[in-house]
Amino acid sequence: MHIRSPVKPMLATTVDRVPPPQSCPGGCRYEPKFDGFRAVAIVDEAGAVHLSSRRRVRFNDAFPEVVTAVRERVPPGTVVDGEIVRWGPDGRLDFGALQRRHVAGRRRGELARAEPCHYVVFDVLESDGADLRPEPLRERRLVLEALLGDEPPGALVVVTPQTPDVEEARIWFDALAGQGIEGLVVKDADGPYLEGRRRWWKVKRRVTAEAVVGGVTGTRQAPESLILGRYDAEGRLRVVARTTPLAPAARTGLAAVLHHAGPDHPWPPELPAGFAGGPYGAHPPIRYVRTEPEAVVEFSGDAAVEGGRWRHAVRYVRLRTDLSPAQVPAFGTVP
Description:
Elements: E1 11-14, E2 28-33, E3 37-43, E4 49-53, H1 64-73, E5 78-85, H2 95-104, H3 108-114, E6 118-127, E7 130-131, H4 137-148, E8 157-159, H5 166-175, E9 183-188, E10 198-204, E11 207-218, E12 223-231, E13 237-242, H6 248-255, E14 270-271, E15 286-287, E16 289-290, E17 296-301, E18 305-306, E19 309-310, E20 315-319
Parallel strand pairs: 1-10, 6-8
Antiparallel strand pairs: 2-9, 3-4, 3-5, 5-6, 6-7, 9-10, 11-12, 11-16, 11-17, 12-13, 14-15, 17-20, 18-19
């Protein structure tokens, strides 16, 4: 085999609109963007499966049912790239189920039976002794469909849908949002697989919503980002999101309306990373300045909402002086 150890997956750059077909030199190919864990699967000549994350961390122990399914469906001497996902009972993607595998320890086998995950494959890097990374996507796709296109009912390893039709892709963009699909990934049909390079595009469905400012990073006089909250049914202010860095004009405008919090502020001096984007324990605690929860802002976020919180950083849109904190949607409300 040409590939015997984990590779750096090819990546995508975020764009705000669905690119038209002529945006790609060889014509665009559109695929749904699944909300899961990126994973590369190497099946060596002996049939052993090596499943690794985007950062080349071993996934075999966390997702044993995926390893078994790959061994059964993918021929020896093959390397594929895809996304590990979990569909919940309501038909939506359940990212929380994936996160539970990291902390489950001995319970991983039990969770694999109770909450089985799927491996959605969208590329093939090697097959039958041929290194396919230099080949155009359109050729790699034909190989992938020949390998995995005949999916038996209930298969845990499936091929992602793909279309050259931008109108069909826009239908997917709208219709699949209810299942937790984040948006679209757009690829050049003539493009090779470039490890670690951002040569694909991704466009995420975004919605606007409102929240209360409960804190800032930086200083109150020069806020760098906002920590946002919403009140739950018991009247507790819960963290829901953290914004991307603020523009200079936004910093000036917000500094004029934000005030230092009094001693009864409900949040601790530091927040775990998972309370304002990202997995719990993945980063050091967030140091921030607490502010009085009286200013309401509008923000733009993607579809990755888990347990009432936006996992990815949101974008500040504007100050909502026409709304009071009591008029902000309750914690847990799906936008």
